[in-house]
Amino acid sequence: MANMAKYNQIYLLMYSPAMEKQIETPECPADTDTSCSEAMRAELLDECEKQFGLLEKLQTEIVLADTDCNDGETNEAINRLNAMATELDQWQEMEPKLLSTNPAILLALGKDELQRVNSQLKMVLSCSQAKRDSLKDVLQREQKWLEEKKEVLNAVTERVATLRSENEKLSEHSILQDMKRKIAKVKDYHGNLMETLSDMLAEHFPLPNQQAVGTKKKRGPVLDSGADLISLSEILERLTNKTLETPHEPYVPIDDSFWPPYIEMLLRNGIAVRHPEDCNKIRLENFY
Asked: What percent of the chain has pLDDT over 70?
């Protein structure tokens, strides 16, 4: 209970009318701003020092009072706890009071606070403007990218529409005619190749006692009487037709119309092969 009385005494000392009169300061003249500001600062520092000195004195008294009491008593500890709880409630309900009531000092403090807040707000404004400029650049790049994608999309859309219209115009008849033209073109190309091959074989691999007359595409072979040999191109044509018509039995029988040197040349160069059981039959070699 003694400690509780001490706390009440400290509270009364800190918030007594005498203390309020102690922190009151005289008004500063209005004609001397600079000297008034320095005087107010000095006055405020003096008041702070006085308040700190008073707090140190009260704390010393509290420490001495705590030393004198008996720490082993349970009731005393409970009373101290109650006193501290009561003081805590009082501090929570109490509204803070200004250290000085001098209007000039309050005005100076308000100006300093406003200048500090103004400086902070300027920094925030500068950061916000920089961020806004950065976001503007990002927005311009995104808008440019979007325009490019729109152009690509429009081009692709037009191309798809063109292809669809062309596809709709095509009919079965036009497709059939196109296929016929392609087949005729391939046949003509094949005929030219066969004709070229026949001319080359007739020129470089002639029959015995044969004389070529005329041009490559128009030749007039003259054979001896009674000769019934066929040319190398005809032999190759028979082998090819036999392979295509009856692939399961591609062998062609060799008769007197086949000139033996032609057969030997085809066999040695791997163009034709003999039948494994009948040497008088040959077929075209598989080239796949």
From this structure: 74
Q: Which of 280, 223, 235 is nearest to 259 (CA)?
A: 235
Report pTM. 0.35
User: What are 55's two structure tokens?
Assistant: 């707090």
The token duo for 65 is: 């009072």
Q: What is the mean pLDDT of residues 276-283?
A: 91
Q: Position of tokens 């004609």?
A: 31
Checking if the pLDDT of 139 tops 80, the result is: yes
**Residues near 112 by Cβ (< 8 Å), separated by ≥ 6?**
none
The terminus-to-terminus CA distance of the chain in angstroms comes to 117
- Helices 172-204, 232-245: axis angle to 10 degrees equals 140
Q: Which residue in this structure is represented by tokens 């000085």? A: 100
Q: How far apart are CA 76 and CA 1, in angstroms?
A: 7
H or E element at residue 53: helix 33-68
